[in-house]
Amino acid sequence: MIKNILLAVDAASHDPARHVRAAADMARDLSRDSGGHVIVLHVHEFATGRFGRIQVDCGDGEGEGVVEKIVADLQAAGVSAEGEIRETHLGHIARAILHAAQDHDARLVVLGSSSRTDLPRLLLGSVASRLLHIATRPVLIVPREDTHAEPGGASAVVASAGADEG
């Protein structure tokens, strides 16, 4: 039985960013161990107002480029993988990720943490934090790889919500 893993990625100034690479590496290792299939997802975020609909998450084609790169890397490592792009309204990325997880019957949602501190999250929130609060299936948040990691540093955070889906 193939178990789907949903890998949610974002586009940042580095292509792909360290937190995205760390999450992709984790998804690769998990899928190898379980024989699972990885769906690499990027969600475009749009604001709608008086002047029309504006994409606010990244530049044109950046999300698609990150997805294509990660899918190619996973496939080169012998992992079954495919990419997917979705769209959502401003502020609803976490919900869009969960909808994709439901549509693909993902056993696990994996994403990277892009921040070292909680300060930005206190003011603005984060997709990872929101996802943990509304999740109905297991979520794995992978800390970004840091070249100056402290000994005994942070490990991945796993949260599971809802009942096990047998």
Mean pLDDT: 81
Strand content: 25-35%
Low-confidence stretches: 119-124, 147-155, 162-166
Order of helices and strands: EHEEHEHEHHEE
Assembly state of the chains shown: single chain
Query: Strand count, sense and closure of the main sheet?
Result: 7 strands, mixed
Radius of gyration from CA coordinates: 16 Å
How would you describe what is shown here?
The protein has 166 residues and is α/β, with parallel strands linked by helices. The chain is built from five helices and seven strands; from the N terminus they run βαββαβαβααββ. The protein has helices at residues 18-34, 62-76, 93-103, 119-124, 127-134, and strands at 4-8, 37-49, 52-55, 80-89, 106-113, 139-143, 157-159. Strands 1, 2, 3, 4, 5, 6 and 7 form a seven-stranded mixed β-sheet that branches. α3 (93-103) packs across α5. The longest helix is centred in the first third of the chain and has 17 residues, at 18-34. The protein is globular, with a radius of gyration of 16 Å. The two termini are 13 Å apart. Mean pLDDT is 81; it is low at 119-124, 147-155 and 162-166.
What's a quick, concise take on this entry?
The chain has 166 residues and is an alpha/beta fold. It has helices spanning 18-34, 62-76, 93-103, 119-124, 127-134; strands at residues 4-8, 37-49, 52-55, 80-89, 106-113, 139-143, 157-159.
For the structure shown, list the relevant keywords.
single chain, 166 residues, alpha/beta, seven-stranded mixed beta sheet, 5 helices, globular, disordered C terminus
